[in-house]
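Appendix B.2, paired examples.
Example (i):
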Amino acid sequence: MRVLVLNAGSSSLKAAVWDSGTVWRQSVDLGPAPNDAVERVLRSVPGGAVNAVGHRVVNGGEFQQSTPISAEVRAAIARAAEFAPEHNKLELAGIDTASRLFPGVPQFAVFDTAFHASMPDEAKLYPGPYAWFERGIRRFGFHGISHRYVSRRAAEMLGGRAARLISCHLGNGASLAAVRDGKSIDNTMGFTPLDGLMMGTRSGSVDPSIPIYLLRHGMADAEGLDRMLNEESGLKGVSGISGDMREIEAARARGDGRARLAFDVYVHRLCREAGGMAASLGGVDALVFTAGIGENSAAVRAAACAQLAFLGVELDEETNGKCSGDCDIATASSRVRVLVVKTDEDGEIARECLRLVAR
């Protein structure tokens, strides 16, 4: 069964055809005319025919599981676009274009937020007025498709011996998930994907008084704050160089002070949040690194593991340095296993589509 998987980010579209594994893949930067780019990608699908289309939808609002796309579901995704506008609007373009180019083919929404629906209320609730919670303002958590795949793959690698996992999805966007027995109980992202860790260009958590201060003193308006926190902060904002960790590490190696500071702040925030996830879990059996930085930056993994040694993490430096693909990079004596897992969001979305078709 051929499943077309569409994974729309804030500025790019990844498309893949999955047939018991990925058989075709394409990625494109969307540019100023995203709808045209989406159509070009979909028209380039080899062989033309597909049996199902699966869409990654970043913010699913109150949806707690993947679902077939109907007019009502599309409308709900559109309403949730306010909370992840760069993502959900592109995902809607993908849904509409696929409906036109593949008429009659069933489409499914696979939500990044659904995996975190299992979080208890004490993890979902913001400590503001309770009316916020009643109006749907709560911590949703994101990167759930990746966290779900990674936690299942980690359990396979460890023979089911790791009930308490900290899944570290470290890409341009970054989040940690506390996973107990395959279920998410906490996540560093919140109402939107801006919360939590320091990221490529996003600030992560900041004192809420900072935006208020900037507004009161005329240093930014609402649109300016949105741009500042989402596009001009994180690694890019601190380093003044780039939001790409590869460029930060290269500049750090050349002795650039702000690049070194950006790297250090990134690792500090990562470890501080990992400590919080460990507290939510009541201990840790495995620490799992995934996504672009998590899979490829031995330096970030080494620095983080050194700071988390108090949890019982012991890194095998040689294995860490040469790790490729899925591997265990902890020493034999480490009380906490340390894994690197290549995430597979496309495969996870395809598997969800197959499950729904079978049902």
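Example (ii):
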Amino acid sequence: MNQETNMVDNLLLTIVLPTLGRAEQVEAMLQSIKNYVLPSNISFEVVVVDQNFSDLLDSIIAKFNSSFPISHYKVSFRGLSKAKNYGAKKAKGKYVCFIDDDAEFTEGLIERAMSRLNDESLDIVSGRCIDREERDSVLPFEHKERVLTLSSFENQFVESTMFFKREICNRFSYDENLGIGSFYGAEEGYDLVYRMLHEDVKILFDPEIKFYHPQTVVSHSAPGMARKAFVYRTGMGYLCKKHKLWKKYFKRLISVICYIPLLCIIRPKDVKFYIGELLGLIAGAIL
């Protein structure tokens, strides 16, 4: 990105990067920012919230210090939601985005997001994740622009593709009980969006705002997947208890209970994954 240092005092965008345990991916993401050519009227900063308890990223970040404004905060805690909240407090931009440490910007997405947020009726714009072949990753996204509502927002967003007006970040924070690094290891984005929509925050999904993100689907029988299923579903259990989303909770719980006996016959290698999911749903709702 080509930026003049005298624009730092009038920042338009803060890119918050919470990270833990990744070096090559962080370097690739920062390189994607360096390579990105922005118009002169868009200024930005990068805020790295480093949870590594080590010097893993020091030399990497040093490579970019002269390329664009970047602040490196080494924190004494771990937890994705806590790191996002910390980064939001350090943000100076008019707008804020929280990017995954294994994602990258694609050409044109920042200008498009900034242009959409010029609409005073909007508070947040959200996009989609794609892989190198431009196929949807993380979720099967809609390819039609739409405003999110309480009746139709599930599976329609990924929080790491969202650009927030900073006043929204000041009003709402991530629930630090949820997300990677906490016992309830997922659903922090759902919780945030659910609370925002209840307060009439206007969120636009624009499929032309595209982030690169590698595909996340792996075999359910792969090592560690049962543990991952447990951690993620504790988040769903906690979420449903917090907001009394019992229809959502029991729909998933009953589906898993019914599916496990069938898997014992047709795909026994996947049984551990769904047992992990079942235990996570129960633990999240009762603990």
